[in-house]
Design a protein that fits this description.
The chain contains eleven helices and nine strands. The chain is an alpha/beta fold. Bound molecules: NADP nicotinamide-adenine-dinucleotide phosphate. It comes from Tetrapyrgos nigripes.
Length: about 350
């Protein structure tokens, strides 16, 4: 378990290695307009002295453009890379809708094709997912496309986006550069699910009452399966599911204090909660250091590992302190489960292989 200072030193060292490269990395942040995503994109830009192309995706333009404005701007000094006019773009998208995700991926591809003409073919080095939607007990759980909204935001759009942008990740890999995907959700969790109903469409009775809790939690398992399956199919690219733990983002504070707002008599408990908050939650800025560590330590395995004669990519499942959980929680029938789940997901997200 590396300490925060070890993580920062490691990040600084990796960033200085990136700054030696002639190429400027391209990073896509889906859900980077607030919380952990915002803190992570800012930390990345700080380490790279602004020398990074950034595309942010979220539903609302104003916070997206504010975050982009606040990113460190490239300031070349003697011996450092020249200011090459980095990309700072916001793309609005409600990622709970798969049709919008299609449009967003097309927009990202076209933008990179037009702005990175000199380094053609266009590439993506890093994709970060951190869009969040939690609805444990409320109603209105289905999107207009008939998908559970928590699963759409916490899982399906992450699969679809990664799948659609894979050619650009491959371009980065083919140039010998980093090609890495990090999904910030939760890893190493065991949760029940029905293998004949991965989308939780048949829930009834108590299952229906608990559906919000189930789809919230099971998304962690689904992200673990996702990173492993993508790695199986994509040698030379790395995929990470990263656990943030308890992070004091504005939205997390809001969600955790809802019960105290139900009645004035509960108000004093809110004060008590704030003490717990200070003791156990970590700041988004510190969380961002761990997620960058997860990214920078996600070696793609340039000499692909051989398993049963097959070439595979690398996957990582990181604890909140950056430890790799490896094959922990693997099931005996993991390969069958992965195949069934892949088929389910490509069907729901309307992807053709
Ligand atoms: N904070 C924690 O304690 C904690 C704990 C465990 C796991 N996590 C996981 O860590 C990740 C980041 O959490 P966070 O606390 O930083 O989240 P957050 O502060 O709630 O940030 C959410 C981000 O998601 C975007 N977003 C939400 N719904 C969206 C939608 N339908 N389409 C597009 N963007 C959407 C928001 O942007 P717009 O509003 O502009 O759309 C915002 O940028 C999430 O995956 C979360 O599940 C967090």
């Amino acid at each position: 378990m590396p300490s925060l200072s070890t993580v920062k030193a490691s990040n600084a060292s990796y960033a200085s290695h990136l700054l030696q490269s002639a190429s400027t990395p391209v990073a896509i942040f889906i859900g980077g307009t607030a919380g952990i995503g915002e803190a992570t994109v800012k930390a990345l830009a700080n380490y790279l002295h602004g020398n990074v192309h950034v595309i942010l995706v979220g539903r609302t333009r104003e916070p997206g453009e504010r975050v982009l404005r606040e990113l460190v701007k490239p300031s070349p000094s003697p011996g450092e890379k020249q200011d090459i006019g980095v990309i700072r773009e916001f793309i609005p998208c409600d990622v709970s809708l798969m049709s919008s995700v299609d449009k967003m991926c097309l927009e990202i591809t076209k933008l990179l094709e037009s702005r990175l003409k000199t380094t053609a073919p266009p590439k993506i080095n890093y994709i970060f997912f951190s869009a969040n939607h939690s609805n444990l007990w409320g109603g209105h759980r289905w999107t207009e496309e008939g998908i559970d909204k928590q699963l759409a935001v916490r899982y399906y759009h992450r699969f679809k986006t990664t799948f659609k942008l894979m050619p650009l990740l491959r371009n980065a890999k083919d140039k010998g550069e980093d090609a890495r995907v990090v999904s910030i959700l939760a890893s190493g969790i065991t949760w029940w699910f029905d293998e004949d109903d991965f989308g939780f469409k048949k829930s009834s009775g108590l299952g229906l009452v608990l559906k919000g809790v189930n789809t919230n939690m099971v998304a962690a398992v689904y992200n673990d399966l996702m990173v492993e399956s993508f790695a199986d199919h994509n040698p030379g690219i790395s995929f990470t599911n990263s656990m943030p733990g308890m992070v004091s983002t504005d939205n997390a504070l809001h969600a955790f204090t809802i019960p105290f707002r139900a009645h004035w008599i509960l108000k004093p408990l809110e004060l008590f909660f704030f003490w717990i908050w200070i003791l156990i939650f970590i700041k988004p800025e510190d969380s961002a250091q761990y997620h960058l560590y997860d990214l920078f330590q996600a070696d793609e395995g340039r000499e692909p590992e051989r398993s049963g004669g097959e070439k595979k990519g690398k996957f990582y499942r990181r604890s909140r302190f950056g430890d790799d959980l490896g094959y922990r929680y693997h099931r005996k029938d993991q390969e069958v489960l992965k195949r069934r789940f892949w088929e389910h997901t490509t069907k729901v997200t309307e992807l053709v292989e």
